[in-house]
Amino acid sequence: MRSLYCFLAVVLLLGTLTAEETLPTVFKDDFESGVENWKPSDVKKWKVTEENGNHVYHLLGKSDYQPPHRSPHSLSLVKDVVVSDFVFTAKVKTLQSSRAHRDMCLFFGYQDPANFYYVHLGEKTDPHANQIFIVNDAPRIKISEKTNDGTPWKDETWHQVKVVRRVSDGLIEIYFDNMEQPQMVAHDKTFTWGQVGLGSFDDLGQWDDVQLQGKTVTPPIQP
């Protein structure tokens, strides 16, 4: 019986890995050709800059944008790509001085300015920082079931981030540097499709080498 349980566990693990690996790549951007694929909340606070011969997407500071509910001010969405299940990866560097809530954010399941998920990669964890959040026609609410003590940002350092989403059971996983072990986990089925994006609550930083693997969907027609 124990051998059967071990076999089933391996099958389930391989099934999960295969599902992730076989998702087609639906979007990639290294910012060497500009930002025509992106829609920022404040165009004046986003630009492509050159760093050692490489082009990166640079968030210059808090955007002049007031969301309808308490949520991040600075976001830039991938245009014209809507996904259900996905794996979303990117490189990120914070340019903010060290403080409890210095952060960068990734957005997903974005349907409109009042309905989406995001992860706040904050330096210190509390109910309003370093958590997975939902904005559902109301100020953001923490939905993390698991998180860590804080995102270990290093100055002048590029970090790797990954978001995994599986709508069948509502799974959301957040990875930081270690791509094998999620740092945050949640389950929620409120939004089963949406756009993805990059940004911060109110800080500044840089992004590069964005890739989205996923199942593209057509949003339902709103009444």
Structure description:
This protein has one helix and 15 strands, in the order H-E-E-E-E-E-E-E-E-E-E-E-E-E-E-E. The protein is mainly β and 223 residues long. The strands form two sheets. Strands 1, 3, 4, 6, 11, 12, 13 and 15 form an eight-stranded antiparallel sheet that branches. The chain is globular and about 40 Å long. Mean pLDDT is 91; it is low at 1-19.
Determine the mean pLDDT: 91
Q: Could you tell me the number of beta strands?
A: 15
Distance N to C terminus? 53 Å
Q: Class by helix and strand content?
A: mainly beta
Helix/strand order, N-terminal first: HEEEEEEEEEEEEEEE
User: Radius of gyration, rounded?
Assistant: 17 Å
Number of helices: 1
**How would you sum up the major sheet?**
8 strands, antiparallel
Q: What coarse outline follows from CA principal-axis ratios?
A: globular
The fraction of residues in strands falls at: 35-45%
Question: Which residues form runs of ≥5 with pLDDT under 50?
Answer: 1-19
| Helix proportion range | under 10%
Name its key features.
single chain; mainly beta; globular; disordered N terminus
How would you sum up this structure in a few lines?
With 223 residues, the protein is mostly beta strands.
Give the SSE layout.
Blueprint: H1 2-21, E1 25-29, E2 38-40, E3 46-51, E4 54-59, E5 74-78, E6 83-94, E7 103-112, E8 115-122, E9 132-136, E10 141-142, E11 159-166, E12 171-176, E13 184-187, E14 195-200, E15 205-216
Antiparallel strand pairs: 1-15, 2-5, 3-4, 4-15, 5-14, 6-11, 6-15, 7-8, 7-14, 8-9, 9-10, 11-12, 12-13
